[in-house]
Predict the 3D structure of the following.
Amino acid sequence: MKSVTGFAAAIATACALSISGCATPSSGPSTTTESPITESRAAAHSVYVEGFYVPFESVEDLARRSDVILIGRIQPNPISSFEDKVDGRAQPPETRIPVLVYDVEVSQVFQGTISGNVQLVRYDDVAVFGSGQGPTPTNAEVVLFLNKGPSGAYAIMGLDQGLVDVVDENLRWRVNEPSKFPSSLEELKSILLS
């Protein structure tokens, strides 16, 4: 069992990760953008990540612990990288966790200060198993509760708890008890802007 800080700490309130590398490389698009956090997805190895997190009890608690809260659209075609490149900690190759870095087109900011679009870091769903992370919706309106990492990229709070799907002004929370959270975008805006 290995405790991980940095990116993993940003996505989970409390996180203990167990990592085991596999020799099989993942398949996927190669990276074309030059960035300090960029690496070819083909170079990624498969890992199992077991995450533990403490669920947020309310939207106020989630908001209080977030650096930024926004409405936006996660763009398709993420950049492949590894967690240690995103959070700046050197890791041996066999323990490196593959991640994807998405661009998020921001339409409204409720909390925090950002200029323009942001980068969002998620586990690579092709190479990482058992993380507890759900699918990443692209080209769809979402509310994101984010923490900023050392590289300037952001991670969603509590794995997927801070990723809220917006469907016809209604909210679909990825939390244990969604009935405790606002059901509409108007209700959420009222809470966040009061």
About this structure: The first strand starts at residue 2 and ends at 3.
